[in-house]
Design a protein that fits this description.
The complex is a heterodimer of chains A (485) and B (124). Chain A is 75% helix and 1% strand. Chain A has a domain at 266-485. With 485 residues, chain A is mainly alpha-helical. In chain A, a hairpin with a 3-residue loop joins strand 1 and strand 2. Chain A has a two-stranded antiparallel ribbon with strand order 1-2. Helix content of chain B is 66%, strand content 0%. Chain B has two domains: 2-45, no CATH class; 65-117, NADH:ubiquinone/plastoquinone oxidoreductase, chain 3 (Methane Monooxygenase Hydroxylase, Chain G, domain 1, Up-down Bundle). In chain B, helix 3 runs antiparallel to helix 4 (95-117). Chain B has helices at residues 2-32, 42-45, 65-88, 95-117. The chains are: A mainly alpha (485), B mainly alpha (124). The A-B interface holds A 22, 25-26, 29-30, 182-183, 202-203, 205-206 and B 1-2, 110, 113-114, 117-118.
């Protein structure tokens, strides 16, 4: 026991996040006595998030671990920065929405901060139980957050569906982990890898069952087809900033965990899970994008579009290699920026109109050309048009899959990506080609926070699309930690 | 290795199942053979033969107020379970253990303060 490294300084960014969460709840409890204005809570949340993100930069190129359960390396640092940036964006672009639609604002920010801690530890975990507890920290915070719009029955319904299905998924995941522990004799990633390298013929069925359950449980969390049923309902019922957060951090954290597990402890048994992953990837890409074709609500459309994106990312797990791991990180970062740009535009639109059906976007180019431009850039980027983030990140992702010997998978991905262009264009068509509804043709402006959030993110979408070199370098350095060939 | 372990659990499970099943089968068998008499009456057929008489079905509605208290109770119940090993070994532990326990209790106290302030402890 004595040789474990209990250096608490390694966890400073998470201490900052948790401390900020407690501070926010306290401030919210004594709001009246302290005479706090309505901007105080989001300001504390934003400052704490920036501090945590800045603090995580101190660990660049560290190779260390906390008590053998949480790795502090470039991979963790990459996701620490990514998740704090997402949190900051959600706070900035969402605070007006929260002020108007959610009564418990303190809980909203505190839950987001705590779930970000869970997400970071999912990326950093190097032991199965730590990974499981981090998943639960993220999920539990989100179960509550999804149903925070208490007065809206849809929100309560979404929360209930999410918690029931999430509970089933957690149970499967835990059972899968227990079977893997049973076959490998350890929950440490490195020791599992060592045990499986020595041959697995004597485990046979138990290992296969463990892998199936593990993939099913994590597939639930990542909303891969056929475990995606909760996604559209949760996305539709949740408050919009939470939907943005669900589609960004929750998804990226699941892939951070998937990549660490499947590139580490489970790599020696790749023959047993590669075909499952390929099957799920194909079903997710095709299913998500085909069902998205007939959606009429922007949140549901984005839900199915995000399922489609999950399919592309699963493809990178299938063809796991150094190139595809780094491509996956690049794609996750690019997808996060693009998706947040779209969501902050949708939040700004909802703040003004209170609507979220696709038909409500008719004539947006006339009433607010700037917002229509942001949405168009975001939609084109999600579809993978050149000059935008989506093209570059998808290109190297598909290339990595093709050069990894899965040309047919990359072909399916290209076809699915082409199909997706149709429904993204449907949104753009409504904005530019249709007339605004009668009586709503006046011009309107966003709030300053709305301009800052959408402007920065749209700039990010173009930046990644045109000058992606730095992102590639960073992702390469993060992926090198995984020590794939 | 694994099938053998499951096999042992399976034997135990068969035994556990036969334990309640056997008396029922034997009783039914005795009835068929006309060894056991059959004279049912309401008291015999009641769910519990002793204790408080049951009333209504289990599908009745419970007062939602109970769940807040139940939640609070479970949290502090579990807290005690966690503190017990720490308290027993307290004499031999370093200062760090005291600090960790203080942080743990502090977080729970914060939760209690939150519940109190939000009015979860009032019977409304």
């Amino acid at each position: 026991m004595s040789d474990l490294n209990f250096d608490y300084a390694l966890l400073i960014p998470e201490f900052i996040l948790v401390g900020t969460a407690i501070l926010i709840i306290m401030a919210d409890l004594f709001r009246k006595e302290l005479g706090l204005g309505r901007l105080v809570l989001p300001a504390i949340a934003a400052l704490g998030t920036i501090a945590a993100g800045a603090a995580s930069l101190a660990y660049i190129d560290d190779v260390d671990d906390f008590a053998n359960v949480i790795a502090i390396d470039n991979y963790t640092t990459f996701f620490r920065v990514l998740f704090t940036v997402v949190l900051l964006v959600v706070v900035v672009s969402g605070y007006e929405y929260v002020e108007r639609n959610i009564r418990h604002t303190g809980e909203f920010y505190a839950l987001l901060l705590l779930s970000t801690v869970g997400a970071i530890y999912m990326a950093g975990a190097r032991e199965l139980l730590t990974a499981y507890i981090s998943i639960e920290l993220l999920s539990f915070s989100l179960y509550v957050a999804v149903s925070l719009a208490k007065t809206n029955p849809r929100s309560a319904e979404a929360g209930l569906k999410y918690v029931l299905l999430g509970g089933v998924a957690s149970a499967m995941l835990l059972y899968g982990m227990s079977l893997i522990y049973g076959t490998a004799g350890s929950t440490q990633y490195s020791e599992i890898a060592a045990a499986f390298s020595g041959g697995t013929s004597e485990y046979g069925f138990a290992l296969l069952l463990g892998l199936v359950l593990l993939i099913a449980g994590l597939g639930f969390k990542a909303s891969a087809v056929p475990f995606h049923m909760w996604t559209p309902d949760a996305y539709e019922g949740a408050p919009l900033p939470i939907t943005a957060y669900l589609s960004a951090t929750s998804k990226a954290a699941t892939f951070a965990l998937l990549l660490r597990i499947f590139a580490g402890p489970l790599l020696p048994v790749i023959d047993q899970w590669q075909w499952m992953m390929a099957t799920i990837a194909v079903m997710t890409m095709v299913g998500g994008n085909l069902i998205a074709l007939q959606q009429t609500n922007i949140k549901r459309l984005l839900a199915y579009s995000s399922i489609g994106q999950v399919g592309y990312m699963l493809m990178a797990i299938t063809t796991i290699s150094d190139a595809s791991a780094s491509a996956l990180l690049v794609h996750v970062a690019g997808y996060l920026i693009t998706n947040l740009a779209v969501f902050s535009a949708v939040i700004a639109f909802h703040n003004r109109t209170g609507k979220e059906e696709l038909d409500d976007f008719a004539g947006l180019a006339e009433t607010n050309p700037y917002l229509a431009m942001v949405l168009t850039a975001g939609m084109f980027s999600l579809a993978g048009m050149p000059l935008l983030a989506g093209f570059v990140t998808k290109f190297i992702l598909f290339q990595a899959a093709a050069s990894g010997g899965y040309l047919w998978l990359a072909t399916v991905a290209v076809i699915a990506s082409t199909i997706s262009l149709y429904y993204y264009l449907q949104v753009i068509r409504r904005m530019y080609l249709l007339e605004p509804a009668r009586g709503e043709s006046g011009r309107w402006r966003l709030s300053p926070a709305g301009y800052i959030a959408t402007g920065t993110l749209t700039a990010g979408v173009f930046l990644v699309g045109i000058y992606a070199g730095p992102l590639f370098t960073v992702a390469d350095r993060a992926a090198r930690v995984l020590a794939l060939s | 290795m694994i099938p053998e372990q499951f096999g042992r659990v399976g034997v135990l499970m068969l035994f556990a199942l036969s334990f309640p099943a056997l008396p029922l089968i034997v009783s039914q068998l005795f009835y068929r053979l006309r060894i056991r008499p059959e004279h049912p009456d309401p008291v015999k057929n009641a769910t519990y033969e002793c204790g408080v008489e049951s009333e209504g079905s289990a599908w009745g509605q419970f007062n939602a107020r109970y769940y807040l208290f139940a939640l609070g109770f479970v949290i502090f119940d579990v807290e005690v379970v966690f503190l017990y090993p720490w308290a027993v070994n307290h004499a031999g532990l370093a200062l760090g253990a005291l600090v960790k326990a203080a942080v743990f209790i502090g977080v729970l106290a914060f939760g209690l303060a939150y519940a109190w302030r939000r009015g979860a402890l009032e019977w409304r």
